[in-house]
Amino acid sequence: MKPVSTLTTLNAEFDRRAAVHASQAPWVPSPAAGVERKMLDRVGGEVARATSLVRYAPGSHFAAHVHGGGEEFLVLEGVFQDERGDYPAGTYVRNPPTSSHTPGSEPGCTILVKLWQFDATDREQVVIDTTRGAYASVAGRTGVERLPLYQGYGETVAVERWDADTHSRLQAAGGIELLVLEGTLEIDGESFARHDWLRLAAGTALDARAGSAGCRFWVKSGHLAGVTAEAVRLRLAAQAGR
Q1: What is the mean pLDDT of each run of 10 residues along the chain (242 residues)?
Q2: Is position 1 within any domain?
Q3: What CA–CA distance (Å, rounded) separates 72 from 146?
Q4: Which residues are paired to 53 by β-bridges?
Q5: Are 235 and 115 members of one domain?
């Protein structure tokens, strides 16, 4: 493991609300040619606990690497590729700690990716094609359907689909995070559109209303309890042998 580089923080106050509207965030070059990022939250340098939108230009790739803290991603556009195969838009993947690959994309792609956010003992590999998954109605939440993706280590991941003008409440005892995939979602008077991101701290709840065309979004909950920037920094340093 390489040493942790100069610490960078963005939306690192995990006990506070954080939001990024994708259309207003710049694409920032990564160390790999043709790969750019829109950073959503981050603690660390190139070894970081990070949530980002990552865009691969056609033919671009990252060097082979090990996932010291795990990698979770959702393909938003195009086709992501590695040694295991092709992952078209709608594919949800969890690469646990100690896994490795050489990621890239011949046709180009955009993904939502979360790094260094796994339990250190997690070894479960997950690959789900959300475009073929079966949504189910959610009891007590009229107009809402849910496609479960993962549950374990205190966190739950899913895609939710809301009918037009649906109003619903999401509990966030352990924190909640979402990325809009289609349509719009209004939360506390703020409108979130395609690829906009929101994170709420543990102990809060989310009241939202879908727009006139409905909404579909990726949502993760339960994963922010006890997370602080200092705890993340110490974990990264320990993993780097410092």
Answers
A1: 55 94 94 96 89 98 92 98 96 96 97 95 97 95 97 96 95 92 95 97 91 98 88 70 48
A2: no
A3: 19
A4: 38, 112
A5: yes
